[in-house]
Amino acid sequence: MRHRLALHTWSLDSTPLAEVLAIARRTGWRAVELRRVDFARAAEAGQPPQAVIDLVRASGLSVACVGGERDWMFAEGPERARVMKGWAESCRWAQALGASVVMSPADPGRGDLGRAARRVQEVGDLAAERDVRLALEANSQAAELNRLARVRELLARADHPCCGLLVDSYHLVRSGDGLEALADLAPEEIFYVQYSDVPPSGLEPGQVLNRLPPGQGAVPFREFFRLIRDKGYGGYLSYEAPNPTAWARPAEEVAREALAATQRLLPY
Fold first, then answer.
1. Is 129 strand, coil or helix?
2. pLDDT tens per residue across span 157-207
3. Which domains does the chain have, with CATH numbers?
4. For the chain, does the N or the C end have fewer beta carbons within 10 angstroms?
5. What percent of the chain has pLDDT over 90?
6. CB-based contacts of 165: which residues, under 8 Å, 6+ apart?
């Protein structure tokens, strides 16, 4: 099974979206992952969401995933209404762009898991209305939902067919889960995959903008990619490596090197 690769726009965060799309095509990427901030920046420039959708469609690139709202699991009152409106937007944008997945990291704080499960169900219903799925990520820097086991527990409580796991190599290793936690997953649990490398030393609490291309850090990528393949996962692998050092370099060079580093480690 050949993996499909996508370039996450956060990896080239200092580069305008139109140029990110052009760079992705020139360097050999065939898909991108979009964030809500890509749409927010367009809005700040006076452009509607449709302008972003038209720009991406014109690029000829596929869209692997669209980012959803953050900090939504424990929301109540007006904040709940705001985040659910945002989720409806993200699901609509994903459908318009032909993406099958919307994603979100788990909330960084603590709260009632029963409430969080109800929010997951609500988002799952919004996703189902647009024929897309929610991929939920364990955030290694979160206070509570920082390990795969905890997010699996949350998804089990929600028990929604449109809601599953986002596996991220960076958080998987940084959290201490390691490849053992990935090996324990059932194939149907994996809805989406992101990847980047973890610095080999000097992990700083709260620091997440230190991600590296595969092969430069502590993630055993040959084994990681092989496990993903052996699970039968046929979706995209999205390169998400925000790092100010990379942002200060020529964006095309960063994109080209990341793709080459990935291809060297894939199991085919």
1. helix
2. 999 999 999 999 999 999 999 999 999 999 999 999 999 999 987 677 778
3. 4-265 (3.20.20.150)
4. C
5. 94
6. 135, 136, 137, 138, 148, 151, 152, 155, 185, 189, 190, 191, 192
